Amino acid sequence: MNSPLISIAAPRSFVPSEYGEGPTELRSAPLKDIGPLLGLINDYAAKGIMLPRTEFEMAENIRDFTVIYAGSRLVACAALHIYSPLAAEIRSLAVDPGWKQHGLGRQLLESLEREAIAFGLRTLFAFTYVDGFFRKLGYEVVDRGELPLKAWKDCLRCPKFQACDEIAMLKALAP
Ligand SMILES: CC(C)(COP(=O)(O)OP(=O)(O)OC[C@H]1O[C@@H](n2cnc3c(N)ncnc32)[C@H](O)[C@@H]1OP(=O)(O)O)[C@@H](O)C(=O)NCCC(=O)NCCS
Predict the structure, then answer these.
(1) β-pairing, 167-172 with 87-95?
(2) Best exposed site among 8, 95, 110, 120 by fewest CB in 10 Å?
(3) What is the rounded distance in angstroms from the CA atom of residue 24 to the CA atom of residue 75?
(4) Quick check: 102 and 16 in contact, CB under 8 A?
(5) CB 110: neighbour CB atoms within 10 A?
(6) Ligand 1 within 6 A of CB of 87
(7) CA-to-CA distance for 29 and 32, rounded, in angstroms?
(8) Tell me: the pLDDT tens digits for 50-102?
(9) For the segment 150-173, what is each residue's pLDDT rounded down to a tens digit?
(10) Other CB atoms within 10 Å distance of the CB of residue 68
(11) Range of 142's domain?
């Protein structure tokens, strides 16, 4: 039987972008991706759009990450972080600005959803500013009190902890 990591491998697809048209490949992230992952995530974090990550956190959680490459360039990433036998968070979702609106975010979420189902999870949740994007993928806004308490651990070191304006979103997975 395939492991979830093997089953998330996707066929190559062609995606046009401002960097030119090229093949993209979705795969799980090895440790050598930490540098480019930090670049992509922390560029958005500097604009207050995402939570910043450190090299240590990335190494600790690297098995959560799925990435998309265009040639030798890492252009998109997302992580599936399991909190309980039933629920996991989608986090660190980012698409390179030059590759936005070309379906990479959707590919990542659909891949993580398949991975979550293979693990036997029942729900996925996210804290986000892009509720429109998550709605397109079948998520609904929920009261943050409905989410697992452990999900708040990232919030404790967030600069916006006392004035959080992120939207909590949830998706029930098909059994
Ligand atoms: C949000 C983000 C991941 C979307 O990735 P993307 O690759 O551009 O999205 P896709 O092209 O896969 O879009 C899928 C659908 O969502 C829609 N969509 C994309 N971004 C959207 C947004 N910001 N608001 C509303 N809808 C959006 C698309 O139009 C598309 O709809 P369609 O299927 O009807 O055509 C990307 O814009 C990004 O990295 N943003 C900055 C970082 C960020 O905010 N991350 C989220 C942290 S929770």
Answers:
(1) unpaired
(2) 120
(3) 9
(4) yes
(5) 16
(6) no
(7) 8
(8) 989 999 999 999 999 999 999 999 999 999 999 999 999 999 999 999 999 99
(9) 666 666 666 666 566 789 999 999
(10) 25
(11) 4-172
Please give the model's pTM, rounded to 2 decimal places: 0.89
CB atoms within 10 A of CB 138: 15
Ligand 1 pocket, residue 94 CB under 6 Å: yes
CATH number at residue 30: 3.40.630.30
Distance CA 42, CA 53 (A): 7
C-alpha 83 – ligand 1 centre gap (Å): 24
Two structure tokens written together for 138 = 């079948």
What is the spatial distance between Cα 158 and Cα 161, in angstroms, rounded to a whole number? 5
C-alpha 160/C-alpha 98 separation (Å) is: 27
Does the Cβ of 128 fall within 6 Å of ligand 1?
Answer: yes
When divided into structural domains, the chain yields a total of: 1
